[in-house]
Amino acid sequence: MTLKASWLYKVRQVKIQVPATITNLGPGINTFGLAIKIYNYITIEETETPGYTVTNLNYASILPVTDENPILAVMKDFFLKINYKPKCGLHLINDFNIPLRKGLESISAGIVGVLVASSIIANCELTDNIINVLTHYRPTPQNICASIYGGFAISTLLENPSQPLISYKVPFPHDLKLTVIIPDHEISTETLKQVSPTKITLNDSIFNLSRASLLIAAICTGNYKGLNFMLEDRLIYPYIRRLIPGSDEIALIAKTSENVGITTCGSGSSILLVYKNSCNSIIERIKKIYSRHRIATQVIHTEVDDDGARMIS
C-alpha cells in the first residue's frame, strides 16, 4: 500500500476507513488473517485550539479521552518518531463499529487507521513500511496485515532487523459466504494467557499444519468439501472453548457440518461461519445454545473486504 500525501498539505481533515480482521482463521495461528466489511473510522481534524483533543464514538466510547487513549498514544508517538510538530491543534475522532474485545481486532484497526491518517497530516509518505512500523505498536503485527491490504493475508515475523515481517495477499473466493456471531461475552487477554499451554505436541503441530495446507488448497482450487475440517485447530481453540459457555456444543456442530467451517475469531469470543450455501439452521442452533446460557448474540452477514485501509475523505 502506498499513500503519497505530498498533495494533501492543505487538507484540514483526514478520515480513514479500516476493516475488521478475522485473525488466526482456524489453524493459521498468528499467520492467517481475513479482512471483512465491518469498519472503524479514524479522523484527524486540524483545529485552531493548540494541543490534542479526542472524541470517541460507538464502541470506542469506553476508551479514555486522555493520553491513556491507545489510538492517541500511537499518533503522538508516531509524530515523535518522524520528528513532526503540529503547527495547530489536532482533534482525533475514533468511530468504532468493530466491537471491542470480541476477537475482531478493533484496537488494531484503530492503530492502522491513525498511522495512515497521521502520515497524511504530517505530509510524509507511508509505503509498505507501515508493516514494519506496526512491529513497534502491536505484539503480533502479522495478525493485522489483512486490515492494511484487505482480503486474505498470510503473514509471518522474520528474524531480520531490516525486514521483520513479510506478508502476501491471496485472493479469497467470493462464492464463500461469511457470517459472524458475536456473543455478549468477553475473553480477557490475561485470562486466555492463564489457560493457554506453554508447550505443544508434535502431533498437534502436524494437525494444524495439515489443516492450514488444506484450507489454502481449497481457496486456490475452489473445492470446499470438508470445509469444517479445514478450519479445525488444536493449538488455541481448545483453550478458548473453556472460557465460552456452550462452546462444547458449538464444537460438535462444527465437526458434523461437512460443508460449513466454524471457528473462533482470533482469541476472542466471536464465531465465524464460512459456507457456500445457506446455513440458517446452524446459525439458529448456535443462537439457541447461547440463549440457554443467557448470552445475547449479534449476527452479522458480511463479505470479504478487498481494499483494506483507505482514505475516504
Overview of the structural elements:
Helix 1 packs parallel to helix 2. The longest helix is centred in the C-terminal third of the chain and has 20 residues. A hairpin with a 6-residue loop joins strand 8 and strand 9. The chain is 31% helix and 25% strand. The two termini are 17 Å apart. The chain is of the alpha+beta class and 313 residues long. It contains 10 helices and 11 strands. The strands form 2 sheets. Strands 1, 2, 3, 4, 5, 6 and 11 form a 7-stranded mixed β-sheet that branches. Strands 8-9-7-10 form a 4-stranded antiparallel β-sheet.
What's the quick description here?
The chain has 313 residues and is of the alpha+beta class.
Structural class: alpha+beta
Point out poorly predicted stretches.
1-9
Oligomeric form of this entry? Answer: single chain
Mean pLDDT: 89
Q: How far is the N terminus from the C terminus?
A: 17 Å
How would you sum up the global shape? Answer: globular
Rg, please?
Answer: 20 Å
State the major sheet: 7 strands, mixed
How many DSSP E strands?
11
Percent helix among the residues? 25-40%
Reading the helices and strands in chain order gives EEEHEHHHEEEHHHHHEEHEE
